[in-house]
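Protocol step 4 of 6: structure prediction from sequence.
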Amino acid sequence: MIKLNELKRFDMADYLDSEEAIAEYLSIVINEDDPAAFIQALGTVARARSMADIAQKTGLNRESLYKALSGESSPRFSTINKVMNAIGLKIAVLPAEEA
């Protein structure tokens, strides 16, 4: 019988191993219409890609990035955009689908 404390803790960052997986993950989360969840998901992606690498590419402090992408704060759009660019993704605006 497996004990609960023997199970490995689930971390979504372990499964974000391609641009396609990252883009799909962020698309799903952003469609939940929960800004804090999106920020936290962006933090998960940054961890999957190496927070130190993202910090270097954005010119931001690694500890500040952890805090900004925790989902418990409201980072500036410029920070979000820098992180998205460092990850290799871009933000695009598309027309809404008709209901």
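Step 5 (inspection) to follow. The chain is about 55% helix and 0% strand.
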